[in-house]
Structure formats: structure tokens, C-alpha cells
From TrEMBL:
Topological type in the membrane: Multi-pass membrane protein
Molecular function as annotated in GO: heme binding
InterPro entries in the cross-refs: Cyt_c_assembly, Cyt_c_biogenesis_CcsA, Cyt_c_biogenesis_CcsA/CcmC
Superkingdom of the source species: Bacteria
A Pfam family this chain is assigned to: Cytochrom_C_asm
Name of the protein this chain belongs to: Cytochrome c-type biogenesis protein CcsB
Residue ranges occupied by any Cytochrome c assembly protein domain in the UniProt entry: 115-315
Keyword check for Transmembrane helix: yes
Keywords: Cytochrome c-type biogenesis, Membrane, Transmembrane, Transmembrane helix
GO terms for biological process, alphabetical: cytochrome complex assembly
GO cellular component, one term: plasma membrane
Length: 341
């Protein structure tokens, strides 16, 4: 296959992934709707029984109960069917997403990892979020998270394709280093983990604020949400530490001759590290759980995504300006430093 063919394959695969993710999202919403209908029916039945609603006879009561049971069974079957279909489609979309990443790297001459600009980093980060969801689906029982994760991935891919797309180009000299693989892999994995943890924390706050909301009936109890969030953050934090405080400065020294340059992206990456360090430290020493911990986690994910997206648009001094405008390679803004921190 030629470089052009690989590039076309990558573009087609990312489009296919977006479509399949969207179909998976629709299935997840149908599943969620079925569970909501079942929850509402259960609440209505309890209220009816609690009110002591009269019945004409025992036979009529049995008939009503039988009809309600059949309706509940039908809703459960529908929810289970669309839930399985959503998981299957998500797996297919993740495979298409992976093909898009491989094709993007193979389209460059010479072949390279697909992390040379913000478009590529964005589709890589969203891939990790979706892949981590699939991997942890059974272990952490994340079926309830499907609409949140799939909605996030669909929106991110849409923004990447519409607003961040750039033609395939060779890596600049500063990025053509083995540290690119080490540093950016750590950053991408940690970003995916922190995003999943942030979704769990957001769900916790919604559940705590609206405990009786029927729409949140399928979301796990607060204790489970708190544990899920903590486990994911505890996994992602050491990876982020390695990427931000170890591999990033080493690569910076290799590229610039200095471990720390007070670049805006470096500063915000460190701020993100401090927030998550505070989150884990407060949980371990002060016993912070629940709303306080969830709030700190959301602050952390906000700093993470501001560092990832915002700095590239709001800072004119950052040397991490890898979101160069598309155009001929010799007219693009020079990329001079590592991209992941």
C-alpha cells in the first residue's frame, strides 16, 4: 500500500469509527430508556400498593400483576438486547479507531507513531478512553457508563475531524525521538484514565444531588461510584507522574538542554499533577470521600483538558505549539518540543 492509500484508509476508518460509536450510543440510550421505563413502572406499582388501591377481585389483581410482570420482562429483554448490541458496536468502533491510528502512522514517510500534532493526539486520547471502557467493562461493571463514555468520544472525534484535522506530515527533528513513544504513551493512557475517573466523579455528584431522580436509577450507588473513581485515578496517577515529572523533563533536557523551562504547558501539567496528588493524598490521610473527593477529581480533569486543548489556543508563548495550522509542510509553524506534557 502507498502512503496515500494508508492516509485514505485512516480517514475512512476514523469516519467509520465515529459512525459506529454513534450507533453504539443510540443503542445505549435505548437500553437506558428501557431501564428507566422499568424503574418508573416499579415506582408506580409501589405507590399504588402503598396507597391501598382496591381491586375488584383476586383474579383481577392476579391479571394486573401478570400483565405488569410480562411488561417488565419485555423491557428487561429489550434492555439486555440493546445493551449487548451497544457493547458489540463499541468493540467494532474501537477496532476501526485502531485501524485509523495505524493508517495515520503508516501514511507518513518515513513511517512514524501517530502523535505528531493535536489532531493525532486527540484521536489517540479518545481511543484510549473507549478502549479502557471496553477493557474495564466487566471488571468494574461499567455498563451504566456507556452513554457518558460514548457521548464523550463521539463529540471529541467530531471536534477533531472538523476543527483539528491536518494532513499527514513527517515528524520534525525535535519530535523524532524514542522519547516521543515513551512520553506520549504515558500521557495518553493517563489522560484516558483520568477522563473515565472524571466521568465516575461527575456521576457521583449528580447522584448525590438528585438521589431520587429516576433518570439516575441505573447509576450505581454512591459508595460504588466512589470506589470506581478512586481505583481509576489511583491507576492513572503514577502513569501521569512518569509522563510529566520523569520522561517529560528528560526529553526536554535532551531537546533544549534544560529540564524545566516554565513553559505554560509544563506549568499546567504540573498543576494537574498537584491536584490529583492532593486528591489521592486527602483520601489516604484525611479520609476524604464522597462529594469533596469527587469535586477535586473534576477540578483535576478540568485542568487536564485545559492543558491539553486550551494552552494551544490561549497561549502565544508556549513552545509546545504542536497545533500548527494545516498547510504545506514548509509553511507550518515549527514544532520544537515534545507534545505530551
Amino acid at each position: 500500500m502507498t502512503d496515500h492509500t494508508w492516509g485514505v484508509l485512516s480517514d475512512q476508518a476514523i469516519s467509520a469509527a465515529g459512525v459506529v460509536y454513534f450507533l453504539a450510543l443510540l443503542c445505549a440510550l435505548v437500553e437506558w430508556s428501557a431501564w428507566l421505563s422499568s424503574a418508573k413502572a416499579s415506582v408506580a406499582e409501589k405507590e399504588l400498593v402503598g396507597a391501598g388501591a382496591p381491586t375488584d377481585s383476586a383474579d383481577s389483581a392476579d391479571s394486573v400483576g401478570s400483565a405488569a410482570g410480562l411488561a417488565d420482562a419485555a423491557r428487561e429483554r429489550r434492555a439486555e438486547l440493546f445493551g449487548r448490541l451497544s457493547v458489540l458496536l463499541t468493540g467494532i468502533a474501537v477496532l476501526c479507531h485502531l485501524v485509523a491510528l495505524v493508517g495515520r502512522g503508516m501514511a507518513a514517510d518515513p513511517n512514524r507513531v501517530p502523535w505528531g500534532n493535536m489532531y493525532e493526539f486527540t484521536i489517540s486520547g479518545s481511543f484510549v478512553v473507549a478502549a479502557a471502557y471496553v477493557v474495564l467493562y466487566r471488571r468494574l461493571k461499567l455498563a451504566w457508563m456507556a452513554p457518558w463514555v460514548l457521548g464523550f468520544v463521539v463529540v471529541v472525534l467530531m471536534l477533531a475531524v472538523v476543527g483539528l484535522y491536518e494532513p499527514v506530515a513527517p515528524l520534525t527533528e525535535a519530535l523524532n525521538s524514542y522519547w516521543l513513544v515513551i512520553h506520549v504513551v504515558a500521557a495518553i493512557i493517563a489522560t484516558g484514565g483520568f477522563t473515565l475517573g472524571g466521568i465516575a466523579s461527575a456521576a457521583y455528584l449528580f447522584k448525590a444531588r438528585f438521589p431520587d431522580a429516576t433518570i439516575l436509577a441505573r447509576v450505581p450507588d454512591l459508595g460504588t461510584l466512589d470506589r470506581i473513581s478512586y481505583r481509576i485515578h489511583a491507576f492513572a496517577f503514577p502513569i501521569w507522574t512518569f509522563g510529566v515529572l520523569i520522561s517529560g523533563p528528560i526529553w526536554a533536557h535532551d531537546a533544549w538542554g534544560s529540564y524545566w523551562n516554565w513553559d505554560p504547558k509544563e506549568v499546567w501539567a504540573f498543576i494537574t499533577w498537584v491536584v490529583y496528588a492532593g486528591y489521592l493524598h486527602a483520601r489516604a490521610t484525611a479520609g476524604w470521600k464522597g462529594k469533596k473527593a469527587a469535586t477535586v477529581a473534576l477540578i483535576g480533569v478540568a485542568t487536564l483538558w485545559f492543558n491539553f486543548v486550551g494552552i494551544n489556543y490561549f497561549s502565544s508563548t508556549s513552545q509546545h505549539s504542536y497545533a500548527a495550522p494545516a498547510g504545506p509542510v514548509d509553511e507550518q509553524v515549527e514544532i520544537t518540543v515534545p507534545v505530551g506534557v
